Every structure is written in C-alpha cells, then in structure tokens.
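User: Please predict the structure of the protein below. I'd like the answer in structure-token form so I can feed it into my own downstream comparison script.

Assistant: Understood. Taking the following sequence of 436 residues as input:
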Amino acid sequence: MNKFSIIWFFFFIFTCQVLSRGAASRGHGDDTAFWKKRARESRNAAIQNYKSNPYDVASFVNHRIHKTKNYKHSRRVLSSEACNATNPIDKCWRCKSNWAENRQRLADCVIGFGHSTTGGKGGRIYVVNDSSDASLIDPKPGTLRHAVIQPEPLWIIFKKDMNIKLSQELIMAGNKTIDGRGANVHITGGSGFTLQFISNVIIHGIHIHDIKPANGGMIRDSTTHYGFRTKSDGDGISIIGASNIWIDHLSMARCADGLIDAVSHSTAITISNSYYTEHDHVMLFGASEMSPEDSLMQVTLAFNHFGPHLVQRMPRVRFGFAHVVNNDYTKWEMFAIAGTCHPTILSQGNHYVAPDNNNTKQVTRRDYTPESEWKKWVWKSQGDVFENGAFFVESGDANYRFALGSSDMVPPKSGQFAVDMAKYAGALSCVPGKPC
C-alpha cells in the first residue's frame, strides 16, 4: 500500500467510519471521543497487519497443508484413542490427550491471515458457570458477558453444558479466547457477538444459531465504559474494525442477518473448521460500495463445510482479498461466492457440488457490475474439484502471475481432499483426558 493510499484511508475512515453504530452510542455523557479513539487505534492495527503481498500468506497455507497427512490414529496414542486430525490446524492439537490441561496450546495452531492471533494466551483461565444475561451495565461475575469485558487477556471456558440467550449483543474486549471444548455450549435465541474496534480474539468450539435482532440500549463494552447501542442486525458474529481474529470449529445456522459479517477495515482474519447450514446470507466481507477502506481486508477461509440449505454469500466480498482454500461446498441454492468493487478471490483446492437446479450451477457471481469491468478483477480457481455441473467463472489476466519475492507460489492441495479436510468441521465433542 502506498503512502497516498494510507493517508486517504485515514481521512475517509476518520470522517465517516466513526459514525458507525458504536461511535454513535452515548454512555455517561457524550462519549464520541471514546469511540473515535477506538476507531483510530483499530485503523492503526489494520494497517500494521495488512500484508502487501497476500500471496506469500496463501502460499504458506498451502505449504502447511501439503505437509499434513490425513490420518485417523496418531502414532503417539493408543489405537483405542481415535485421533481424527485431517488438516494442519487440527493436527496441531486434537491428537493430544492433555488438551484440557494445556488449552492455550490452541493459540499456536492458527494459519492464514489470522496467523498472529493469540487471543487470551498468557492470561488466566476464566470459568463461565452461569448462563444468565440479566444485567447489561453491571454483568454478574461468572457470566459470559462479565468475562468478555475484562481488560486483561483471558482464556474463557465453560463449567458445564449451557444454552445462553444473550439479551443484547455481546460486545467483547480484545485479547480473549472463548473456548467451548469439553462442554456443549449454544448461543441461541437472543443476540450474537460484536467484535468492534478490537484485536486478538479467538472463538472456538461453540454453537451459534437462531440469533435475533435486539432493540439496543445501554450496554457495557468494557469495565470502564458503557453506552447506548442502536438496534443490532441479528448477525451471529459481527466483526467491525477488528484485526487478528480467528474463528474455528463453530456450528452456525439460522441467524436473522449474516452468520459472520466483517466490515470497516477488519483484517487479519482466519475462519476455519466450521459448519454452516440453513441460512440465506452466510458471510459478508466488506460493508458497502462506499467503504473503500475494506481494501485492507484479508481473510482466509479454510476447511469449512458449507452444508445443505445455504442460499448465498459463502462469502460475498467487497474490495478485499479472500483466500478460499480446501472447503467443502454442498449444493448452494443461488451461488457460493460473490463480489463487487474489484475484490480479489483466490479459490484453491475446494470441493464444489452444484445444486440440481440448472440455473444455479455457477459458483461465482459479480453483482451490479458490467462484464467490461469485472473481467479485470483477479478471480482464480486452482485445484478446485467441481461436481454436478458446478463451474467457476475466472477473471483477470489469463497469464496473471501471483507475485512472490523469490519463488513461485506453492500450489494448493487438490479439492479431491477437501471433503476429508473439512470432515470434522463444526463444534466438536471433546472429552478431557482423551484426544478430541
């Protein structure tokens, strides 16, 4: 990114983006200055985390995948202790029977654009033992809301199985890991998660479904601040101006708006090993055609299973860069991947099974843009496998070379392996003392 671009991003975001939902909130007095400071800090983090050559990151992901063997039993455990690790993220931790005693090892396992995410690593373990969400300004200790607003790094786990109905959006502070392993945790029937102007968050091993819009109101977002929030959209996870985010092994369905939306210069994101079903607008990366700051956005989608009864946006991208690698797509209803505003899409080693409808076989869709324009966008398919008539419409120079420093880009592992690599997508049933 050149100097002019950076200055322009600063100007545009400062004058416009701080007027977002959070920036318009009011707590004890007019706290616009509070949100402007948060927005400025998040912009700095986004610029620092932006990769000027994203193909280096994509190439390293492919390198790690090629090094991983698809196997069902680890050499280090007894044959009675099955270890079903089929991709490099899972291989990093799932075959270890002591995962519950060494939970924070998980933070060493992320790959892709979110590879620097550590979440709450180094912090203490916080045990959620209360599923209630009654107080939004003075959250009860032991609740999830109380955990996520603390100022220090925390590794948040759950004492028991829980259904948590959030009465309003859960606004998180940075440097947190939400780790659902060892419990069956459902966020359902209420609001979802909001990651706004923060960095360094891991969300792992929980179910998020049937999320509803909420009317807003006074909500605490840290131990030192609360403010008035306008109505939330009903996203499962809303990422706003956040960086270094890793979402892994989630099961998501039936949210009022998107399952996962990332907007407002969010970047350095990896979304992996998750299962999605029964939803319309699945993922949106990029707020609108009026938000060119989303050119900073860089997202890795890896080892996910986009299951049945999904309609569209897996993902839809504006301006940014999406590396879509070794995912399993099962019969979308309209299209799988879409974009506007010249995003870059690198589809590698995915398994695309088209729906039976002859009118919706195409994986890709360019919205509201004439072919004379979108044919210039770099959308490439490499190593993908297509079934039931699926096809990917490429664009950009046919001889386009992915620029790297001194070597060619590592090719992807074929899409014929994507089903195995995404086989264990979704929240897992992990038992302490055994490989997961």
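That's the full token string. Residues 32-49 form the longest helix (18 residues).
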